[in-house]
Amino acid sequence: MATSELDSSSGIPMYKQIKEILRTEILEGVADPGTPMTEAQLLERFGVSRAPIRQALRELTNEGYVFRKQGKGTFPVSGARVDRPADLRVGGLHRYLSDRGLHPTSAVSAVSRVTPPAHVQRHLQVEQDEQLLHFSRVISVDDSPLLTADVYVRPPADFHPTAADLEASGSAFELMEQQYGILLDRAEHVTWATSASAEHAAILGVAENSPLLAIETTFFTTGGVPAGWRIALHLAEEFKYRFVENR
């Protein structure tokens, strides 16, 4: 892309414009993962000072779009578009994707009150006859499926969101926080590698038996009360999940 694509009259800082141009090229596969993005090359390309170039590269590095090789330069990251940070707010993935400029959309189906299967009952410590809110969600990024999730939530008795409500909010827990002041305190995750069934392959647009990343999550409200359970299947090459181990 040419220097003319920078708009000095837009009011958007130069580093943000440069970052967005480079981010788009990485996401669209235009940037060669084997070719470093050197400061010299970017200075010549954009015709700006070093400060906005360095700031753009710093933010792209922090967000997982590029990585630095000692003595060799900064390289685009091939594959993963989502680098989920360890300190992400519980239930905040949809908002995080939006803040990163990835344009997430959400398709929700099968919204109903059901008696959950036994393993969900155990995780959420519910009685056998207790009904939970259940729905399925597919989150897409830039119109490409990223993950499919099966969700169970312990809702207030008069909480009856529609599929449209859940799609607009991106999270049932955000809706419950807004309407009832119910806050999530923490989440526990279990993750493993798996392969796509015929059903999930069709949903995610991949071949059957393609590698997927499975993440099972139990959500807790303040006081450690189990509030929800989710199993999400992610495209393995599109998603990185960071963990922090506390002592």
Structure description:
- With about 250 residues, the chain is of the alpha+beta class.
- The protein has two domains: about 5-75, Arc Repressor Mutant, subunit A; about 80-240, Chorismate lyase-like (Chorismate lyase).
- The protein contains eight helices and ten strands.
- A hairpin with a 2-residue loop joins strand 5 (about 130-140) and strand 6.
- Helix 1 packs across helix 3.
- The protein is elongated and about 65 Å long.
Per DSSP, the total helix count is 8
- Rounded Rg: 21 Å
> Which whole number gives the mean pLDDT?
88
* Percentage beta strand: 25-35%
Domain HTH gntR-type: 12-79
InterPro entries: Bact_HTH_transcr_reg, Chorismate_lyase_/UTRA_dom_sf, Tscrpt_reg_HTH_GntR, UTRA, WH-like_DNA-bd_sf, WH_DNA-bd_sf
Protein name: Transcriptional regulator
Keywords: DNA-binding, Transcription, Transcription regulation
List keywords for this structure.
Arc Repressor Mutant, subunit A, 247 residues, Chorismate lyase, alpha+beta, 10 strands, 8 helices, six-stranded antiparallel β-sheet
Structure summarized in a few sentences:
The protein has 247 residues and is an alpha+beta fold.
